[in-house]
Write a structure and sequence with these properties.
Layout: H1 2-9, H2 17-20, H3 24-47, H4 54-60, H5 65-71, H6 75-97, H7 104-121, H8 123-131, H9 135-138, H10 143-169, H11 181-201, H12 206-209, H13 216-227, H14 239-249, H15 252-260
Helix pairs in contact: 1-10, 6-7, 6-8, 6-10, 7-8, 7-10, 7-11, 7-14, 10-11, 11-13
Length: 271
């Protein structure tokens, strides 16, 4: 619970005073919660979200059902906690993307690459982002965990909004048709999420199989960003090279991890 409060109140990257006052008992509770989430993650990976139950979580863990209910009010609460983990992972990659030294449009590509990496590195957690928004999950999740979820979602959105505003201020983004920042932020999310979903879950369809040797994800992004009149246009700049530079300069460690098949540790999973 203290971790929830730290997530909500700590906005400037400083150490949370509540965490500094963690007792050994409180730390043990936090560690146990991480362990339970790791087990839940493995169960979902094997059987899917619909088949996750508190009984299965109890059977797969060394703890009693009562102990588990001290951490999670329901299986839906577990799913929301996993979603929050996915959001934290996404935010950590977004913060790395912001460090890229390039134009505002290249920085936008860095954010999209971060989003794509988040999905590739943790596909189970990535799929949880929409599952956790289902009414059947929302209705039975704890209010505290839902509050954290909303705060994390807001943080992601504000990072995108800030980049859009910076691009407008620099006269690099010249939106047409009265496009507002909220609409452009949604467009970026929609095309990125949709592309990832199709390329990952429908890869054996003919329309995707024939894309071998191309870069459909970047192609879609360039079509959208050109349509938004985000300069330089793709006809005036080689964004394939920008994409490769982002991979090399910002996400080389993540690319190496994907190449070696090493699993992402769940140290990012705080409740």
């Amino acid at each position: 619970m203290l971790k929830f409060l730290c997530d909500i109140t700590n906005k400037e990257g400083r150490s949370c005073p509540l965490e500094q006052r963690f007792s050994k008992k409180q730390q043990a509770i936090a560690d146990r919660e991480q362990e339970l989430l790791h087990i839940a993650h493995q169960l979902v990976k094997a059987e899917g979200y619909a088949n996750l139950t508190m009984d299965k979580l109890t059977a797969a863990s060394p703890y009693s059902k009562g102990t588990i209910y001290n951490h999670f009010s329901s299986k839906e609460d577990v799913i929301t906690a996993l979603c929050n983990s996915a959001l934290r992972h996404e935010i950590s990659l977004f913060k790395k993307a912001e460090l890229f030294n390039g134009s505002s449009r290249e920085k936008a590509l860095a954010l999209h690459q971060a989003y794509l990496l988040s999905a590739k590195m943790q596909p189970i957690l990535f799929s949880c982002l929409l599952t956790a928004k289902s009414p059947w999950v929302q209705e039975k999740s704890s209010p505290a965990r839902l509050t954290v979820q909303q705060e994390l979602e807001k943080e992601v959105t504000q990072m995108v909004d800030l980049l859009l505003q910076q691009a407008i201020d620099a006269n690099e983004l010249q939106p047409k048709n009265a496009a507002t920042i909220d609409l452009m932020a949604f467009a970026n999310w929609a095309i990125s999420f949709g592309g990832i979903a199709l390329l990952s879950s429908a890869s054996e369809t003919y329309s995707i199989e024939r894309l071998q040797g191309t870069h459909p994800f970047l192609f879609n992004l360039n079509c959208m960003l050109d349509g938004m009149n985000w300069l330089p246009l793709s006809t005036d700049w080689d964004y394939c090279q920008s994409w490769l530079r982002i991979e090399k300069e910002i996400f080389s460690a993540e690319q190496q991890q994907l190449a070696t098949g090493l699993p992402l540790t769940l140290s990012l999973i705080h409740i």
